[in-house]
Amino acid sequence: MIHIACPRIVRNLSLSTLLFMTGNQFIQAQSKGDPKLTEVWSPEPKVVTPAEKCGDAPSDAIILFNGKNLDEWELVKDTTAPADWIVKGGIITVNKASGNIQTKQKFTNYQLHIEWRIPKNITGEGQARGNSGVFLASTGPGDDGYELQVLDNYNNKTYVNGQAGSIYKQAIPLANACRKPGEWQSYDVIWTAPVFNSDGTVASPARVTVFHNGVIVQNNFELKGQTLYIGQPSYKPHGPCPIKLQAHGDKSEPISYRNIWIRPL
């Protein structure tokens, strides 16, 4: 053990250094009510410069849509083909004919920001009114994965575990924070991916926190598995996954996205 003779020295030591004190020395220092005993000085958090405008990307974000092209995206049905949704005026509009798109990069845990807009001239009702989805981890073709629902629910009723802000058919949103069609909306997501044991069983389930237009709608929700249209959710083992945007097959006018960025955690 390293012997520290002077209490004045104790006040200048880091918490890690105090681990080398003898038990009696630590008890004596603690009994004096020294606040230094609970101060940690290293390692220091990395410096991240926040954006000037709330909702814009901070300095360490990966930009998934820069307003100009879909270079970070690919078609789900043919990952060798570039994504061909419509890019115009700094926004992406869903091309329902080409199907879902997903990021070329794969992610595990992350912070995601994405903005979306239901067209002002939207038609249809229920699930057939501005339907799309953000799949927080795409685990295969089609709609395989974990879906955060996108839908017009400003004045449109549907089953509540399928409305905007829901984890599809698993978690009802804590509030309906939808804006009117024609107005931009935002999702801010904290995604914790599931972890699997070597035998494929679940070591820890996926968790998600979601803010819709600044209102919390999912609070560290623990997913029961992948989101399914029919049947009960279940897990299948997987690693890092792309993020997928859904081209839903309903007949309503296609929705748009913009300002998409991510911070791996």
Give the key terms:
disordered N terminus; mainly beta; 15 strands; Jelly Rolls; 3 helices
How many individual β-strands? 15
Mean pLDDT: 91
Looking at this structure, what is the CATH superfamily of the largest domain? Answer: Exo-inulinase, domain 1
User: Main sheet, how many strands, which sense, barrel?
Assistant: 8 strands, antiparallel
**Quaternary structure:** single chain
Shape descriptor reads globular
Order of helices and strands: HHHEEEEEEEEEEEEEEE
The separation of the N and C termini measures 38 Å
Report the top-level CATH class of the largest domain: Mainly Beta
What is the radius of gyration computed over CA atoms, rounded to a whole number of angstroms?
24 Å
DSSP summary: helix tally: 3
What structural category arises from helix and sheet content? mainly beta
What is the domain total for the residues? 2
Second CATH tier, the architecture of the largest domain: Sandwich
| Helical content class | under 10%
Q: Under CATH, the topology of the largest domain is which?
A: Jelly Rolls
Strand fraction equals: 25-35%
| Sequence stretches where pLDDT stays below 50 over 5 or more residues | 1-13
